[in-house]
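User:
Hi there, any thoughts?
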Amino acid sequence: MLDRVKAALAAITSQGAFAAELMRPSDDLHITVNRVGALRFPISVTTARALCAVARPAPFGRREKTLHDATVRDTWEIGKGQIKVDVRAWARTLEPALANLGEKLGLPDDGELVAVLDKMLVYTPGQFFAAHQDSERTDDMVASLVVTLPSASSGGAVIVHHHGEKKVFRGAKRGSKDLSLLAFYADCHHEVQPVVSGFRVVLTYHLLHHPATSPRTAIVASASVDDLATSVRAYLTTPVAHGYRNPAPERPDRLIYLLDHEYTEKSLAWTHLKNGDRLRVSALRQVAERLDCESYLALADVHENWTCEESDWGGGYRWRGRRHDRGDLEGDESSEHALGELCDSSVELRHWVGHDGRAAPSVPVTPAEHEICFTKASVELDPFKSEHEGYMGNYGNTVDRWYHRAAFVMWPRDRNFVIRAKVSPSWAVSELAARIKASVLPEARNGARSLLPFWARYAPREESPTFFSKLLRVALSLEDAELAHGLLAPFGPYRLNAGALATFAALVERHGLAWSQRLFGVWSEGGVHRHAMPSWLPLLPDLFEALLSSAPRHGRAVGAWLLTREVSAFEQARLASRRLPSIWLGSDDTGEHSKTLLALVKGAAIIKAAATRKHLMALLTTGQTALPILDACALLETCRDGRTPAAVRALGLEELYRRVVEALERTLTAPARESDDWSIELPLRCKCELCTELAAFLRDRNRVEHAWPLAEARRRHIHDMIGAHRLPVTHVTSRRGSPYSLVLTKQNAIFEREATLRERQEASLRWLKKHRSAFVDRRSGE
């Protein structure tokens, strides 16, 4: 569909050119230069030399700097303050010429083209100006004017480039006293070739376009507008699938047309569009009104990444890597490249202009590729910046190119809410809240319903801590279970915070147990819940408190179900991880596990779920899910920290406490490892023949070293097992014989680790006995 829009736009053409030249007599041009006097045409060699004597070397701009570099610009400049022109006499020739030039450039004929003197330039033999762009100094500047004064000279041709086209202008040919008036759009690159002989003397002007008080709409054939309207309507109403991430067909959100000419923030205006841009945008505005669409102008920053080859490899599209900022000369890259395939492209829109011509609030949007069309590809323009990346192993030569462009943007007014919501989900939630506050609940529900098809792709990007709380309030106020579920489903419980719990509990109370189970089920299936478990479960006790206080009908049931669910999830995670004894595998995440387990323990106490708490205690103390002794100690210490003995006893940890104390006493009663005992009792996760032999070596209290002939793949497996279990065993490959031998050597860390472990166990037992009253109810006896 976008191809049809592009074809309809390409069919709208203008007769205007990007550069135009006129020849006019010099009779009305009277110039006086300070310290030189009145000029007589043609300018003599003596006068030209006198002009050079009062001039200065001409600078050029590079970004915010003004520089002098004769390899870039080599000419003489006389400021306009030193020049006096008889404006009244000159107007008799200049004003009709400007009207003619404006027509040739395709500018609106109901406005006025005005020339403002900038400077005089004098080129001596050999002098030149490299390719560059002129700055648009004012909001209404659209072009530059170069008036070449009569003089005996050769060379110094002006070459103007635009979109791969170029025009060469060599000056007046009619008579020795004729003037050449050359006008070209300010976004054109142009250069002055070296003067061969004589002196080239010119006046340069800024051309300003003053639109009419009530500018007329550019005239476009009605058939062309009708064809464009049909194409745009079909494009905006036809659902299309875009990419593997979003396979479901959807209607395009907007149409973005990249203009042919470049514009700056100063010059981007409906009344200052150039040449074909003016006609096509006029047609698009008529279509926008006909289809009830919003319409804007915006600056478009385009970035493209291409594959490329060095110039001597041949083939492809050759380009010069010029890097020009507007009004600046960045310089040429030293080499040329042949472009291959376009790898990636992106467009960023900024500086929006509304239909009334005023600056509009910027819409921070990165347009999708399927929303963008153009009649001139960016590759046909000169980039303002380019960077070449040479061959990098797996990556070939690439080049990045950046362009300054402008765009016409339109979208249906009836999709305003949806389009803005995609850009800012936070804005959408605020808008729904405003509708609810204005007591237009049906309108708020319709707006919320329109969000659901895309909400899961855009809303989770909002990271503001207040966003989710605001969304919960809106979901509650909509009084619709399906809408509330649809708005909250893309998130996860990790978005809940202390300020949001009461509102969430109110939602639970309104929509019930089944609704809550469905929501938490979706949160888990998305993978977000499990990944964020450490950051969300510590909030569980506060959630249960909120449920009991704000959801009297459903809160306890939801809390009990959620607790059972989380304890079961903890059990499955423990069985899957099959944690190893902490003597060999350090408990680096003990603190985080303690917070999680404390949340489950506290939650069970709040909900008064005795059966679930008993099941949790059994998981922590028996079977494959039992905590390593020191991990269990860490949990008890966490539960004791900052709580009174009565508050700790209310958590029901007595059984866990007793089992940990008994296990520590039993372990410390056993004799310490003997100095010649090199055994490592460790159940390996793998039961293959290699690991069976490895386990036998580890258990042997007398063997310290094991030389083991193994092929590379089998050696790698043993490497992996030693690393995964963090065994105090080195492994070195002896590269003799075939296959090579893997030499395993037990380390003294066996004794060091066990000694450290015993010290920690003794310290933990002392602490547990000191705080016995906080865990054991005196009434339970010994």
